[in-house]
Amino acid sequence: MDTQEWKKAYTLDARIRLRKEGRVVYGSGIARLLDLTDQLKSLHGAARQMDMPYRKALFIVKRAEEELGRPLLERSIGGAGGGGSRLTPFGIWLSRNFQAMEAEVNQYVAQLKDKYFNEEGLS
């Protein structure tokens, strides 16, 4: 396999997680769940799209909210217009900043891959 084929065949990534006292509080999984919830205006719908039981999705969100000490979602129950969920201002802030940081880290990781896994070692 030549250098160009090798570079295309292999990727390098990093997993970013926000921790509190060693416990994961926020990461790409909950970020995706919250983004889908905001898009669909439904935690249930987001969970279904991720092939996740609703109860698990609710547990994940509630645990993160408890650990962070702030709500991530505003939830409304049924009624004439139906219920729904949307991100709180804090949830929007956290989601945007986490995604921006994750994108920056992944760009840096790609640069490191090119630096450390270069032609010299492949020849």
Radius of gyration: 19 Å
Q: What are the secondary-structure elements, in order, as H or E? A: HEEHHHEEHH
Quaternary? single chain
- How many helices in DSSP terms? 6
Count the beta strands: 4
Query: From the 3D coordinates, which CATH architecture of the domain at 19-95 would you assign?
Result: Orthogonal Bundle
Spatial strand arrangement across the major sheet: 1-2
CATH topology-level name of the domain at 19-95: Arc Repressor Mutant, subunit A
Helix content: 55-70%
How would the global form be characterised? elongated
Largest sheet: 2 strands, antiparallel
Name the average pLDDT: 89
As residue ranges, the low-confidence spans are none
CATH-defined superfamily of the domain at 19-95: Winged helix-like DNA-binding domain superfamily/Winged helix DNA-binding domain
β-sheet strand percentage: 5-15%
The end-to-end distance, rounded to whole angstroms, is 10 Å
**For this structure, what is the CATH class of the domain at 19-95?**
Mainly Alpha
Structural class: alpha+beta
Q: Can you tell me about this structure?
A:
The protein is α+β, with helices and mostly antiparallel strands and 123 residues long. The chain has a domain at 19-95: Winged helix-like DNA-binding domain superfamily/Winged helix DNA-binding domain (Arc Repressor Mutant, subunit A, Orthogonal Bundle), CATH 1.10.10.10. Helices cover 60% and strands 14% of the residues. The chain has six helices and four strands, in the order αββαααββαα. It has helices spanning 3-9, 28-40, 43-49, 54-68, 89-116, 119-122; strands at residues 17-20, 23-27, 73-76, 84-87. The strands form two sheets. The protein has a two-stranded antiparallel ribbon with strand order 1-2. The chain has a two-stranded antiparallel ribbon with strand order 3-4. Helix 2 (28-40) packs across helix 3 (43-49), helix 2 crosses helix 5 and helix 3 (43-49) crosses helix 4. It is elongated, with a radius of gyration of 19 Å.
